[in-house]
Amino acid sequence: MANPNQKVRDRHGRYLPSPDTAIRDAQAAELRTQGLTYQQIAAEMGYASGRSAWDAVNRAITAVIKEPGEAVLHFELERLDAELVRLDNLEAAARKVLTARHITVNNGHVILHPETGDPMEDDGPVLQAIDRLIKIEDARRRNGERRAKLTGVETLKIETTVTEVTQQDLELQEMLREAKARVAAQEQALRDAPGGEG
Length: 198
Fold this sequence. Notes:
The protein is mostly helical.
């Protein structure tokens, strides 16, 4: 059985006020609307200090503001979920067009290939389906970005390069330096030779 005195935390790890605390906070806020100072509220409600009364009033104000905000967040997330379902249905329809065989028709007549006599395939619907699938993917990306902003889970972009240098890498670098030095020496020798460039 759960401990009734144990404090509950929200999804961010912050303690949630108990129902009794929420009621006391609302009462403190009511006294503040009647013009009482925080010190007077503390004396009336039994808080240790005016600061404790101030904290209680601010918790009440935050709760009043937070509840509609959470309702809007919930509504927006449901809307984004519904949009994903619609996008899934649109993708399925576009994929059907993409995989279906399309025959070229002109003025109500099937166009036949001049060499084989077979009906000519029409690439237009396939290309339009590909274009639509690209737009659907773009809409999904925007949906994910909006969801990340709403939930505070925006992607942190960190660019790093990890390079492990092995002994073999060091030996190859040394061989490369030696080869460059040999080539430079040979080029210099050619320039210094009679009839050379230099």
